């Protein structure tokens, strides 16, 4: 059997999923991650669709899948998504979710479970600062502490601002998507009974004039558990919770909010929505949030054209996930795609170890599939980004402001009949 030593740069979702799979298949793998604690990471919930779950089953041991499902909230147990206007009036519903195989899980819970599956092959507090090749052509990485590590295959799973992809492509592989997101979490029990009833057991979205948007996600890994196995649960969310994401177009005003922290940041977000004519009802979920949970992040996006992704010749250095197809969270598919990349790379690397192809052929096959996957999720995520940005034009603002009350009134009449 051909042995392949792999170094993975980045222990986020994709890097850990890949390393768990490689370890399980007997590969020699090392993950270098700059964070010193896997739970010290931001983010709200991650949606894993049926394809991402199927990929995970190929990567992690069955007991990890079981713990993951016991810590996830099932979409099929939720009411259909809702769309509201900025006064909190219902505009319409999304499709029924009864048949949806998708699950939602806290990003921190998911990352912790994957890190457990990688065990001692995960090295925390290791920042990669440079990469190159040894005289024999094998890749090597340089760490901030000056140490040098060699391998047969180097995989950049180092996220949207990837050092590895930049090295391969000769420049950045993604650019700001012109939207800044702010997220926080609010326990359902902290909301007024009226607002709790309005939001219900579902996720929802408000898109209003001048590019202001609000996503409210419902997460309940206990009440809506995918797998009712309390002993296996590792969820950090222990009661019904609304996880919200506010979005504003990039501007000097948005930038000034982005620099704030905690209660000051929350107050500035609320003040901005109020100045833009939002009613108090849709703002309650933010007003009652734990200020310590509020964070800001800039959306980054790669090109949505498959041929623009991974624009380098296949070789002993490759990349996956956001490092190649950085995706705004507007489609909830970035983490799932990184996991599917990991499963695909593992499949192709097994062809190398059983002698049926060379390493560069395996990498080339993997990158071809990743381009298609990346393009698919970017097209979907950018649809919402473009919609939000369109409401920030003079025409878009007028259309949104006039159409929303009409749709809400018609919807109200229909429901009363
Ligand atoms: C803080 C954060 C919160 C997020 N929250 C959500 C969310 O709530 N919902 C959602 O749908 N998507 C969210 N995303 C995006 C989603 O998690 C990504 O699409 C998905 O994780 C892609 O996985 P990835 O492995 O490619 O990158 P990531 O999961 O971003 O992992 C990249 C990892 O590489 C590490 N790294 C970077 N540079 C170096 C270096 N030089 N040396 C060593 N390590 C390095 C980083 O510390 C990070 O852990 C979030 C991303 C981040 C970073």
Largest sheet: 7 strands, mixed
Tell me the domain tally.
Answer: 1
Strand content: 15-25%
Tally of individual helices: 13
State the low-pLDDT regions, or none. Answer: 412-417
Structural class: alpha/beta
User: In CATH terms, what is the fold-level topology?
Assistant: FAD/NAD(P)-binding domain
User: How do the strands line up in the largest sheet?
Assistant: 6-5-14-15-16-13-17
CATH class: Alpha Beta
| Span of the ends, CA to CA | 70 Å
Helix content percent band: 25-40%
Tell me the radius of gyration: 22 Å
Bound molecules: flavin-adenine dinucleotide
Organism: Streptosporangium saharense
InterPro entries: FAD-bd, FAD/NAD-bd_sf
GO molecular function: FAD binding; monooxygenase activity
Transmembrane segments: 395-413
Characterization of this structure:
InterPro entries: FAD-bd (IPR002938), FAD/NAD-bd_sf (IPR036188). It comes from Streptosporangium saharense. This is 2-polyprenyl-6-methoxyphenol hydroxylase-like FAD-dependent oxidoreductase. Keywords: FAD, Flavoprotein, Membrane, Monooxygenase, Oxidoreductase, Transmembrane, Transmembrane helix. GO terms for molecular function: FAD binding; monooxygenase activity. With 417 residues, this protein is an alpha/beta fold. It has one domain (5-416): FAD/NAD(P)-binding domain, CATH 3.50.50. It is built from 13 helices and 18 strands. It has helices spanning 13-24, 50-59, 62-70, 107-118, 163-169, 193-199, 252-258, 262-275, 284-287, 322-325, 334-353, 359-390, 394-416, and strands at residues 5-9, 28-32, 45-48, 73-74, 82-84, 90-93, 103-106, 122-123, 128-133, 139-143, 148-150, 153-156, 175-187, 204-207, 213-219, 241-249, 295-301, 317-319. The strands form 4 sheets. The chain has a 7-stranded mixed beta sheet with strand order 6-5-14-15-16-13-17. It has a 5-stranded parallel beta sheet with strand order 8-2-1-12-18. Strand 1 (5-9), helix 1 and strand 2 form a beta-alpha-beta unit. Helix 2 runs parallel beside helix 11 (334-353). It is globular. The N and C termini lie far apart (70 Å). The model is unreliable at 412-417 (pLDDT under 50). Bound molecules: flavin-adenine dinucleotide. The site of flavin-adenine dinucleotide has 33 residues, from helix 1, strand 3, helix 10 and helix 11.
């Amino acid at each position: 059997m051909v042995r392949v030593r792999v170094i993975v740069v980045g222990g986020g979702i994709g890097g850990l999923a890949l390393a768990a799979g490689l370890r399980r298949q007997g590969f020699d793998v090392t993950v270098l991650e700059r964070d010193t604690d896997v739970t010290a990471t931001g983010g709200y919930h991650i949606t894993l669709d049926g394809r991402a779950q199927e990929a995970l089953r190929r990567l992690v041991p069955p007991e990890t899948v079981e713990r993951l499902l016991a810590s996830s909230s099932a979409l099929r147990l939720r009411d259909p998504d809702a769309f509201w206007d900025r006064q909190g009036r219902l505009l319409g519903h999304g499709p029924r979710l009864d048949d949806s195989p998708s699950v939602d899980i806290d990003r921190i819970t998911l990352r912790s479970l994957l890190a457990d599956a990688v065990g001692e092959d995960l090295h925390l507090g290791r920042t990669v600062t440079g990469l190159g090749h040894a005289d024999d052509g094998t890749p090597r990485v340089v760490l901030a502490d000056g140490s040098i590590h060699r391998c047969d295959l180097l995989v950049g799973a180092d996220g949207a601002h990837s050092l590895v992809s930049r090295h391969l492509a000769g420049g950045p592989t993604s650019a700001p998507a012109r939207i800044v997101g702010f997220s926080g979490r609010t326990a359902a029990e902290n909301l007024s009974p009226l607002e709790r009833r309005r939001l219900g057991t579902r996720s929802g979205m408000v898109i209003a004039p001048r590019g202001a948007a609000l996503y409210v996600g419902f997460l309940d890994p206990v009440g809506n558990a995918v797998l009712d196995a309390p002993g296996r649960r590792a969820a950090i969310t222990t009661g019904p919770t609304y996880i919200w994401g506010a979005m504003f177009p990039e501007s000097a005003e948005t930038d000034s909010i982005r620099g704030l922290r905690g209660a000051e940041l929350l107050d500035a977000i609320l003040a901005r929505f109020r100045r833009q004519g939002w009613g108090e009802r849709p703002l309650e979920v933010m007003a009652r949030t734990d200020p310590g949970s509020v964070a800001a992040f800039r959306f980054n996006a790669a090109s949505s054209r498959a041929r623009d992704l991974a624009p380098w010749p296949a070789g002993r250095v490759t990349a996956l996930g956001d490092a190649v197809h950085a995706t705004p969270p507007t489609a909830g598919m970035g983490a799932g795609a990184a996991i599917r990349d990991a499963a695909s790379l593992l499949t192709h690397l097994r062809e190398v170890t059983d002698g049926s192809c060379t390493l560069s052929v395996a990498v080339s096959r993997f990158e071809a599939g990743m381009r298609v996957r990346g393009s698919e999720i970017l097209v979907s995520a950018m649809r919402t980004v473009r919609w939000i940005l369109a409401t920030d034009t003079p025409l878009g603002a007028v259309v949104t402001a006039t159409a929303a009350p009409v749709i809400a009134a018609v919807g109200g009449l229909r429901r009363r009949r």
